[in-house]
C-alpha cells in the first residue's frame, strides 16, 4: 500500500479517476456491440456458440431444469443452506421496510391527484461466475424484486464445465427465482434485453459483472432499464488511534481479495495506525487463500490517506464516495450525519464489511467508483415504477 500525506490537486484527480467504471475502451465497446448484434440475429444459436468459445462449455439446453435445482440441496453442506436461509430472512426483513406506497391527494375540491406504485413485470438478474461463486448476490438481487411484486424473475449465470455451483442454485430457490439460464457475459445481457427463442425479454437488468457485462448493460440501457454500471469492489475505512490495526487490515483485504482491480482505502490521522495496518496487511496477505488476487489489488490500488484532523478525514472520505465505508472512530454513530457520499456505512469495530456483504440484510449491490455521489444501493424501489394520475371535475 502507498501512503499519501497531502490531498494535493494531483492526488484528488487520481482518486476521482480511480475506477474504470465510466471509461470507454474502444476495442471492448466494439466487441460488445458485435456480440449484442449477433445475439439479436442468431438468438439461442449465438448463445450456445459464445458459451463454447468463451466458457469452453458445450450447451444442449440453456435453461437449468428444476430437478437440477432440487438436487443442489443434496450437494450443499446443511450448515451453508441454513446460513443462506438466515441471510435471506435478514435481507427480507430489511427490504420490506423499503416498499413505496401509492398515495392520493383530495385536498382541493374537485381535484384528485395521485401516484400509483406498481411492480415491474419481469426482471433479469446477473450473477457472476468467474473466480468465485456468489450465492449472496442471488439473494441480494432477487429478494427485493420479490418484495416489490415482480411477477417473473429470470436469473442468468455463466455456465461451468462441472455445472453451476450448487450453492448458487440453492440460493436461487430460497430467493424465489422463477427461471435460471446458464449463460454469461455480454451475450447474457443481450439475451435478457432483446429476448431469444428460450430466454424471455425483461424490463430491467440488475447485478454486477465483469467489464463486458458492464459495457453490455451500458449499451442496452434504453431498451431495458439497468440498476447501475458497476466497477471494481472497494472499501474505505475511517480510523483513528483507537482502531485495531489487525482488524482494519483484515477488512481492507476482505475487498482486495475480490478482484485485482478492487480498491482498498484507509483514511486516518494516526501515523502509528497507518504503519501498523501496512505491517498487518503484509502478514495477512501471506495467509490468504486468494492472496495472488489480493496482493495485486493492494499493490496497485491500496492507499492510505494520512491527514491531520477528523474533519479532514471526513472531507477526504466524502470525496472518495466509497462503495463500502467503515467508521472506526470514537463514537462512530455521531459522524453518520456528516457522511454525504457512501454506498453502505458500517459503524464501529464490530460491524465488519463482510457482515454486510453476506448476512446482516442491507444490500451489497452498491454504487462504485465514486458514483455514490449520486446513486444508492439496490433496493425494492429499483423494481417498482410510479404512475401519476389526475382527475378534475367541471
Protein architecture, described:
It is a single chain. With 394 residues, the protein is α/β, with parallel strands linked by helices. The protein folds into two domains: 2-20 and 232-373, 3-Layer(aba) Sandwich (Rossmann fold); 43-226, Rossmann fold (3-Layer(aba) Sandwich). The chain has 14 helices and 14 strands. The protein has a six-stranded parallel beta sheet, with helices on both faces. The chain has a five-stranded parallel beta sheet with strand order 6-5-4-7-8, with helices on both faces. A three-stranded antiparallel beta sheet has the order 2-3-14, with no helix packed on it. Strand 5, helix 7 and strand 6 form a beta-alpha-beta unit. It starts with a strand and ends with a strand. The mean pLDDT is 92.
**Name of the top-level CATH class of the largest domain:** Alpha Beta
Number of strands: 14
CATH topology of the largest domain: Rossmann fold
> Could you tell me the radius of gyration in angstroms?
22 Å
Number of domains: 2
Largest pleated sheet: 6 strands, parallel
Strand content: 15-25%
The CATH superfamily of the largest domain is Nitrogenase molybdenum iron protein domain
Mean pLDDT: 92
The strand order across the widest sheet is 1-11-10-9-12-13
Per CATH, the architecture of the largest domain is: 3-Layer(aba) Sandwich
Structure classification = alpha/beta
Bulk shape: globular
Pfam families: Histidinol_dh (PF00815)
EC number: 1.1.1.23
Active site: 323-324
Keywords: Amino-acid biosynthesis, Histidine biosynthesis, Metal-binding, NAD, Oxidoreductase, Zinc
Amino acid at each position: 500500500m502507498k501512503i499519501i500525506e497531502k490531498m494535493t490537486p494531483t492526488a484528488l484527480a487520481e482518486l476521482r479517476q480511480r475506477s474504470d467504471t465510466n471509461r470507454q475502451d474502444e476495442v471492448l465497446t466494439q466487441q460488445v456491440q458485435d456480440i449484442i448484434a449477433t445475439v439479436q440475429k442468431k438468438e439461442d444459436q449465438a448463445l450456445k456458440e459464445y458459451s463454447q468459445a468463451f466458457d469452453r462449455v458445450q450447451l444442449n439446453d440453456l435453461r437449468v431444469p428444476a430437478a437440477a435445482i432440487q438436487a443442489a440441496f443434496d450437494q450443499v453442506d446443511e450448515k451453508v443452506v441454513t446460513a443462506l436461509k438466515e441471510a435471506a430472512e435478514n435481507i427480507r426483513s430489511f427490504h420490506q421496510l423499503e416498499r413505496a406506497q401509492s398515495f392520493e391527494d383530495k385536498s382541493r375540491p374537485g381535484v384528485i391527484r395521485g401516484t400509483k406504485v406498481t411492480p415491474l413485470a419481469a426482471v433479469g438478474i446477473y450473477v457472476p461466475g468467474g473466480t468465485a461463486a456468489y450465492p449472496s448476490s442471488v439473494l441480494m438481487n432477487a429478494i427485493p424484486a420479490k418484495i416489490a411484486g415482480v411477477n417473473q424473475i429470470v436469473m442468468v449465470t455463466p455456465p461451468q464445465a462441472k455445472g453451476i455451483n450448487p450453492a448458487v442454485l440453492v440460493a436461487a430457490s430460497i430467493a424465489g427465482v422463477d427461471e435460471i439460464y446458464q449463460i454469461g457475459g455480454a451475450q447474457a445481457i443481450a439475451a435478457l434485453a432483446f429476448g431469444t427463442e428460450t430466454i424471455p425479454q425483461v424490463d430491467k437488468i440488475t447485478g454486477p459483472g465483469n467489464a463486458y457485462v458492464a459495457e453490455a448493460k451500458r449499451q442496452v440501457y434504453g431498451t431495458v432499464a439497468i440498476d447501475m454500471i458497476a466497477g471494481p469492489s472497494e472499501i474505505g475505512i475511517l480510523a483513528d488511534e483507537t482502531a485495531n490495526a489487525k482488524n482494519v487490515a483484515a477488512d481492507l483485504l476482505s475487498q482486495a481479495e475480490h478482484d485485482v482491480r478492487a480498491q482498498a482505502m484507509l483514511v486516518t490521522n494516526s501515523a502509528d495506525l497507518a504503519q501498523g495496518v501496512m505491517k498487518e496487511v503484509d502478514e495477512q496477505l501471506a495467509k490468504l487463500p486468494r492472496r495472488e488476487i489480493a496482493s495485486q489489488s493492494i499493490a496497485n490500488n491500496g492507499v492510505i490517506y494520512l491527514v491531520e484532523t477528523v474533519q479532514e478525514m471526513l472531507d477526504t472520505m466524502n470525496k472518495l464516495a466509497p462503495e463500502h465505508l467503515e467508521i472506526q472512530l470514537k463514537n462512530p454513530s455521531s459522524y453518520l450525519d456528516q457522511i454525504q457520499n457512501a454506498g453502505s456505512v458500517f459503524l464501529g469495530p464490530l460491524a465488519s464489511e463482510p457482515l454486510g456483504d453476506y448476512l446482516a440484510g442491507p444490500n451489497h449491490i452498491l454504487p462504485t467508483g465514486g458514483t455514490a455521489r449520486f446513486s444508492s444501493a439496490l433496493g425494492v424501489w429499483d423494481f417498482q415504477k410510479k404512475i401519476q394520475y389526475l382527475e378534475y371535475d367541471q
